[in-house]
Amino acid sequence: MKRILTLLLCCIVTANLATAQSKVFKEVNDEISSDMEAIIQDGALVGYLAFTQLEKVSEDSFNYKITIMDENLNDLGTVLFRNRQLKLQAVSFEQDVLCLAYLKSNIIGKQFKNKKAFDAVSGSQKNELVVDFLSLDGKVIKSNSIPVDIKVNFYPAFANEKSTVTGTLKKTLQLKNIPQKGFACYYADETANNLVLFGVEGKRLWKKKIPETLGYSLLTTTEDIYLLTKIKDDMLEGGHSIFSYGVQDSAAYIKYPLTDKDGNMLKVVGFGNDAITGKPYVAGAIIHPKKGNRFYKGKGLANGAYMGVYSINFNGRKKEDIKETFTYWSDGSKSPEISTHGKFADNGAFLNFDKVIRDYQGNTYFVGSSLERKPRWVSIGLSVVCLPLIIVSPYIMIASGTQKCRVKDAMIVKLNDKGVLSFDNTIDCNTSKYLRGAFPISYYDSKNFYPVSNSATQSNYIIVDDKKDIVIYNINKKKIARTIPHKEGNTRTSVYPAKEGHIMVSEYNKKEKYTRLSIESL
Amino acid sequence: MLRTTLKPYQPVGYGSLLILLFLFSTVCKTQAQQNSLYNYQQLSHLFYARQKDSIRKNWVCPVLYKEKETQKKYKEMWEERTDFITSSLEAKDFVHDKEVYNYIEQIILEITKANPTLIPTKPVLLLDRSASVNAYTIGGNIIAVNAGLVAFAGYREEIALVVAHELAHNILNHADNSMKERAEWFTSEEYKKSIISVLDSKYERLTRLKKVLEGFSFNRSKHNRYHESDADSLGIVLLKNSHIAYNPVYFLRLDSADIQYKQSLKQPIKNYFAGYNVPFEDTWIQKRSKGLSTKNYNFRDTTHLADSLKTHPECVERYNKTLSLSTTEGRELKIPANVQEQANKILIWNMFDNLNLTACLYRILLQKDKGNKDEWYDFMIYNIFSGLYYSDQQLNRFNVIAVKQKEYISKDYYELQNMLEQIPKESLEQYCKQLQNAPFWAAMNSDAKALKPLMNSINFETDISAKSKENAAKDYIANYPNSMYCEFAEHFKKK
C-alpha cells in the first residue's frame, strides 16, 4: 500500500512539474499580444511594424516591443520600452521619422469584478492620445500627449468572472505624412473633431477643431490638408463636402459641397492624390435625386440610380483651381452606347461602382462588377395566366418578382482628361446566380477590388478578389496579367497590399499547416 | 556505447596517399567538363541507406541515470539527435563524392593515424552540401564537413584545423556531455524552482522566464565558450602530432567566412550577360522601391547568424590565444584546384536545388571573375533563370531571390538581387529561351542536355496540368537514373 502511495505521489510530482512548465509557457504566451501595421508614406507601403505587448510589469505598466520591418519583411530592428496600457492607432513615415499614434489609458483594458469596483476608479480615469516620433536608430525623438474624452464601457460579467473595460475614440484616428513637412492627425473624441499638425521633429505645430461630421477621409499635399466629410443627410450615398486647411497657417481655404450644378448629390467612389500632380481628386457617380437611394438593390441600380459620372481636381485653393468634369447619360446624350439608366451596350450591364483609379495619363477609370438585369418571364407569364384567379397573381409577383439580376465579369469605364466617357473593357471573373432584383447586390456580388500602381513603370493594375479566383488586370495594356485560383489542392491563396507595384501572396497549406508569404511583382 | 556500422577505419600510408592524390587530381582535372559531379546514387538518402537503418537500430540510449525523469529527458534528446542525423541523411544533405570526400578523408586519416591513443577509432566523415563555412560533430563518432568550408579555405591546413577542432570535440565527448548537462538541468531542482517562481510571480513573467532560459543557454549551449577553447587547444595538439602546420592566421581568415557576399565583382553586372545575347536594362539593377530598405537605418543589431564558425568565440581572441603555437614554416599545401572547384560546384547545385537563386548566381559570377570558363557554370545560369521563371509562375519569385539587406552584401550583390526582382516576366522568358540556344550546350553531357526539354515542359508546356510535368520528370529519371540531376526531376514526380 505504501509503495502504491509513493508511486502515486511520484506521478503527481512529475505531472506537476510538466504541468508547471507547460503552464508557464502558456501563461507567458497568453499575455503577449501583437498588432501588425503597414507603414505608409505618400500612399505607398514602405514597411511594416509589429507592435507587441510583452508582459505586465506592474499594476499599470507593460513592457512593449516594436519590430520594424522593411517592405520585404526583413527585420530592421526592434525597440523595447515600458509604458501604461497602449493601443496602437496608426503609423506613418516621413523624412526618416516614424510617427506612431497610441491611445493610452489608465482604465481601458483593466479588469473589474463588478460595477461598484469599476465606479470607484472610473472618476479618476485618464485617457490620452500619445504621438511618438521614432528615428531610424530606434530613439524616441519626441513624444506628445493630448488628453482625450472617451466614453468607456463596463459590462459586468456573470458569477465571479472579471470583466474588461472597453473604450475607443469616437472616430478612428487617421495619420498621414505631409511631404517634406511632417504629419497630419485627425481624430474625434466625445467632445470634438480635431485636426493636429506635427513637424517632422515631433513638434506640435497647431491643433484645430473641425465641425461635427459623420465620416471623414484625410488627404495631404505639401501645402494643404484635405478632409472629405459627410454631414447628416437623407441621401444614403451623398451629402459629402470637402474641406481644406493650410499646412502653414491652419486657415480653412476650401469648403466644397459635393453636388452638381443642379444640386444633385455626388457619390464618392474615389478620393486620392493624382498620380502625376499629387493634388487631390474626387470621383464617382452623380446620384439621381429620386432613384438614388435604392443603389443597394440590383433593381434599384438598373432603374437609373445614377445619372452619370464626375471627376473633380483640386489643383489649388482658389475656385478657378478646382477643375470639374460632369458627364451625364441620364439625358440620353450617350445613347446608344449608354442608356439613360446607365446600361452599357458593350456588355449589356450596369456598373456597380467600387473603385476609381487615376492613371499616369490623367484618365479616370471607374471599376466595379457588371450587373445584368433580365425580366422573369416565367413569373410574369404565370402571373398573366393566373390573372383570372385574382389573388394568386399578386402572390406570384411578390414571391418571385418581375426582374432577376446577376453579377458577371468586372467592368471598367474610362473618363478621359477631356471628359469623354467610354466603355473600356470587361475582366473575366466568376459569375453569380440570378437572384430576385429586389435583393441587395451584396448578396451575390462577392468581388473585392484593390488598385495597385507602379510609379517607376507608370502602370496601373486592378486586383479583383472574387469567390473562386483572384484576377490581376493590367489597365494600361487592357489584359489579364494573371489569374490565381483561391484554392488549389490543399493550398488556399489570398492576396494583400504590398510595396508599390507588388502584391503580398499568402498561401496556407491546410494539410501541412504552414503559411508561405511572398511579395510578388506585377 | 555509441556504435554505428559505418565504414571501418583502414590505415593507408601517407606517401602512397600523396601519389594517389596527385594522380587522382590530374585525372579529375582532365575529365571535369565531361563528368557529372557525382551520381544520384552517391546522395546520402541512397548511399547511406543501410547505415541510416543501422543508426536507428544500434544507437540505443544508454541508461545513465537512476532518476527516471532525467533518464527520460536524456532519452528524448538522444532520440532527437538520432532523428536529426537520419532525417538529414534522408533529405540528401550529404553526398559521398570521390574528390572532395576523399580529400577530407585523407586529412582525417592522417590525424587519426598520428593520434592513436586519443583517436582509437577513425570517425565517420559526412560531406555536407551546405555552403556555410563550417564543420560539426554530431556525436556517435561522426563528423560532418561542409562543402562551403572546402570551397572557402585556401590551404589544406585550414581544413585540417577545423577537422582537428571537431575531432577534439569528439575526443572530449562534448556533444554527449552537452546532452547530459541539458537533461540534468531540465530535471534539476534549481530549474523546477525557477520555473515555478515564474508562475508564482504576478509581473514580468516573460523577463523572468527569459532569465531562466538565458542562464541555461550561457552554460549549456551548443557552442559553450569553454568547450570551444578546449577543442581549439586539443585540436592544435592533434595537428602537431600529425606534423600538420598550424597558423593562427587561419582563425582570422575564417572570421571573414560570413561576409563572402560582401565581395565585389570585377565587372558591372551587365557584362556577365553580354555574351549570352540576352536583353539587359540598367533600370533592372537600380532599386525602384521607396521602402525602408533603401533608408539609412541603424537599429541595434538584432540579427542572428546561422550556425557557422562565427558563432564560436571571437576568432581574434582565438588567434591571440594560439599565436605561440604557430608551426607554419613552408609547410602549407594549397588545396588542389579540382577539389575546390568540385566543392564549389556541389554547393552551387545544392543552392539551386534548394531555390536559393541570387546567392547561387552570385557564386557563379565570382567564379567567372576568376577566369573560369567551365561551361557547367553557363549551364547553371540557364537553370537559375529557368528556376526563377518557374518560381515567378508559382508566385514564389520573392522567396527564391531571398532578398538580403544592403548592409550584409556588396553593391554588386545588391544590384544582382534587384535585377532578379525587377526583370520583367517577358524578359525572363527571353532569357530562358535565348540561353537554350547558347553554344555552351555543346560541351554538356547528355544528362545535362536532357534537362532542357524537362525545363521546357515545366515552364512552357501548353498543358499546364501537373501531369505533363510529372511525365517529363518520370521520363528524365527513367532515361538517366544515375544522373545527379535526377534530384531536380524528383521535385516534379508525384510522391
Description:
The complex is a heterodimer of chains A (522) and B (495). Chain A is mostly beta strands and 522 residues long. Among the domains of chain A are: 33-178; 447-522. In chain A, strands 23, 24, 25, 26, 27 and 28 form a six-stranded antiparallel sheet that branches. In chain A, a hairpin with a 3-residue loop joins strand 30 (459-465) and strand 31. Chain A starts with a helix and ends with a strand. In chain B, 58% of the residues lie in helices and 3% in strands. Chain B has a three-stranded mixed sheet with strand order 1-3-2. In chain B, a hairpin with a 2-residue loop joins strand 2 and strand 3. Chains A and B meet through helix 1, strand 2, strand 3, strand 4 and strand 36 of A and helix 9, helix 10 and helix 19 of B.
Number of helices of chain B: 25
Measured distance between first and last alpha carbons of chain B: 37 Å
In whole angstroms, the N-to-C terminal distance of chain A is: 74 Å
Interface with most residues: A-B, 53 and 39 residues
> Spans of chain B of 5+ residues with little confidence (pLDDT < 50)?
1-34, 301-308
CA gyration radius of chain B, whole angstroms: 25 Å
Global geometry of chain B = globular
Which labels suit this protein?
heterodimer, A: 522 residues, mainly beta, six-stranded antiparallel β-sheet, 5 helices, disordered N terminus, B: 495 residues, mainly alpha, three-stranded mixed β-sheet, 25 helices, 3% strand, globular
Brief summary:
The complex is a heterodimer of chains A (522) and B (495). By secondary structure, chain A is mainly β.
Per-chain topology:
The complex is a heterodimer of chains A (522) and B (495).
Chain A: H1 2-31, E1 33-41, E2 44-56, E3 61-70, E4 75-84, E5 86-94, E6 97-105, E7 111-112, H2 115-122, E8 127-135, E9 140-147, E10 163-164, E11 171-178, E12 182-188, E13 193-199, E14 204-210, E15 216-220, E16 224-230, E17 240-246, E18 252-257, E19 266-273, E20 280-287, H3 298-302, E21 306-314, E22 322-328, E23 343-344, E24 349-358, E25 364-375, H4 377-385, H5 392-400, E26 403-415, E27 421-427, E28 435-436, E29 448-454, E30 459-465, E31 469-474, E32 479-485, E33 487-488, E34 491-497, E35 502-509, E36 514-521
Antiparallel strand pairs in A: 1-2, 2-3, 3-4, 5-6, 6-8, 7-10, 8-9, 11-12, 12-13, 13-14, 15-16, 16-17, 17-18, 19-20, 20-21, 21-22, 23-24, 24-25, 25-26, 26-27, 26-28, 29-30, 30-31, 31-32, 33-34, 34-35, 35-36
Helix pairs in contact in A: 4-5
Chain B: H1 14-31, H2 44-47, H3 49-58, H4 68-90, H5 99-114, E1 124-128, E2 135-139, E3 142-146, H6 147-152, H7 156-171, H8 174-186, H9 189-200, H10 205-220, H11 225-241, H12 249-255, H13 269-274, H14 282-285, H15 315-322, H16 337-353, H17 357-369, H18 375-393, H19 397-401, H20 411-422, H21 425-435, H22 446-449, H23 451-460, H24 466-479, H25 486-490
Parallel strand pairs in B: 1-3
Antiparallel strand pairs in B: 2-3
Helix pairs in contact in B: 1-5, 3-4, 4-8, 5-7, 7-11, 9-10, 12-15, 16-17, 16-18, 17-18, 18-21, 23-24
